[in-house]
């Protein structure tokens, strides 16, 4: 499991792509050497990957918790190409299977959809925001969720599922449970018959130590003063993660604190890290101005003023003077 950054015995079934078409190989995700896998989620993914190739994996979790990146980084390490699709309200079966187009010479040509490509070439079909599509769409492909051959009505072709083909679905809500937070608009509860066919994996924001390690690993080697670079990286990652934790607490409803309408996801946290370094090294802004500039771009321009002020206050209190150690390039 060392390929996944875990010091434990064991291996994961990988793919040999020696005879694959270059257009298929190009869809193998690029490996991020700094990505941090969580052992529990990786364990479930690995068992599903090897034991249930004919059943989909359904991954739920809050926005920015790393669902898509988790799948892509897993596939990068096992050499699996990924064809992805983001669901929407008007998605229909032809968007998955394929349709005819008119070529330049006016002839008609059938173009495979992402599900057909996965079945034909042995790819992972990654469906993001599953519940944004009508529930009856997934009912219409129930047989394919069980690994059955794919029949293309438009051409009469029958495609047996490639042994490597997999389906992964991600969503912010849990499938058969409504979004009680009201954060995710236009979502559809899924039919029990569909969800019954899926393995389930839940992802929350990664734990403190892993998130700090992730932040620290993605800080470039820059010039700082008043402390060593390694010490600064560790302290900066620690404070930034504490700030994110406090914002998340406020977002989830901390007693005595005005609720806010946005949170700092891991995705936003990494964006904020970059912006704080850029603004702190500019030498043109005060510490507070640099912080507010970074926060506005990373998150707060999209929220109400009360939420923005609350977030700014929390982050400023946790970061303190750590950005004053940044030296101008």
Relevant terms:
Mechanosensitive ion channel protein; alpha/beta; Rossmann fold; 329 residues; ATP binding; 2 domains; ATP hydrolysis activity; single chain; ATPase_dyneun-rel_AAA; P-loop_NTPase
Describe the structure.
The chain has 329 residues and is of the alpha/beta class. The chain has two domains: 2-202, Rossmann fold, CATH 3.40.50; 208-325. Helices cover 40% and strands 12% of the residues. The chain is built from twelve helices and nine strands. It has helices at 22-25, 39-51, 67-78, 93-97, 114-121, 135-140, 192-195, 208-217, 229-252, 266-282, 287-298, 305-319, and strands spanning 57-60, 82-86, 98-102, 108-112, 124-128, 150-152, 157-159, 166-171, 199-202. The protein has a five-stranded parallel beta sheet. A hairpin with a 4-residue loop joins β6 (150-152) and β7 (157-159). α9 packs antiparallel against α12. The longest helix has 24 residues, at 229-252. The chain starts with 21 loop residues before the first helix and ends in a 10-residue tail after the last helix. 33% of the residues are buried.
**Strand-and-helix sequence, N→C?**
HHEHEHEEHEHEEEHEHHHHH
What form results from the Cα inertia axes? elongated
Characterize the main sheet.
Answer: 5 strands, parallel
Query: Into which percent range does the helicity of residues fall?
Result: 25-40%
Our Rg estimate from Cα atoms comes to 23 Å
Protein name: Mechanosensitive ion channel protein
GO molecular function: ATP binding; ATP hydrolysis activity
Domain ATPase dynein-related AAA: 57-175
Pfam families: AAA_5
């Amino acid at each position: 499991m060392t390929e996944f950054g875990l010091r434990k015995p064991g291996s994961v079934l990988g793919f040999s792509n020696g005879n694959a078409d270059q257009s298929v190989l190009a869809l193998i995700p690029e490996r991020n050497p700094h990505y941090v896998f969580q052992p529990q989620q990786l364990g479930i993914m690995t068992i599903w990957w090897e034991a249930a190739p004919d059943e989909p994996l359904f991954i739920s979790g809050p926005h920015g918790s790393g669902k898509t990146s988790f799948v892509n980084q897993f596939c990068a390490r096992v050499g699996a190409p990924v064809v992805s699709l983001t669901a929407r309200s008007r998605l229909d079966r032809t968007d998955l299977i394929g349709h005819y187009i008119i070529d330049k010479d006016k002839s008609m040509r059938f173009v495979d959809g992402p599900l057909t490509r996965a079945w034909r070439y042995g790819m992972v079909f990654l469906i993001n925001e599953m519940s944004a599509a009508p529930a009856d769409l997934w009912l219409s492909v129930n047989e394919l969720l069980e690994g059955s051959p794919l029949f293309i009505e438009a051409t009469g072709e029958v495609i047996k599922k490639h042994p490597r083909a997999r389906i992964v679905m991600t969503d912010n809500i849990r499938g058969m449970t409504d979004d009680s937070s009201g954060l995710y608009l236009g979502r559809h509860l899924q039919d029990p018959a569909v969800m019954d066919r899926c393995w389930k994996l839940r992802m929350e924001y990664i734990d403190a130590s892993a998130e700090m390690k992730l932040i620290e690993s993605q800080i470039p080697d820059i010039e700082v003063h008043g402390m060593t670079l390694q010490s600064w990286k560790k302290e900066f990652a620690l404070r930034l993660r504490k700030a994110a934790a406090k914002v998340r607490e406020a977002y989830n409803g901390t007693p005595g604190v005005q609720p806010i309408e946005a949170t700092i996801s891991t995705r936003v946290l990494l964006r904020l890290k970059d912006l704080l370094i850029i603004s702190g090294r500019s030498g043109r802004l005060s510490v507070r101005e640099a912080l507010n500039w970074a926060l506005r771009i990373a998150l707060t321009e999209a929220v109400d003023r009360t939420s923005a002020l609350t977030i700014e206050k929390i982050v400023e209190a946790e970061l303190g003077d750590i950005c004053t150690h940044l030296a101008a390039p």
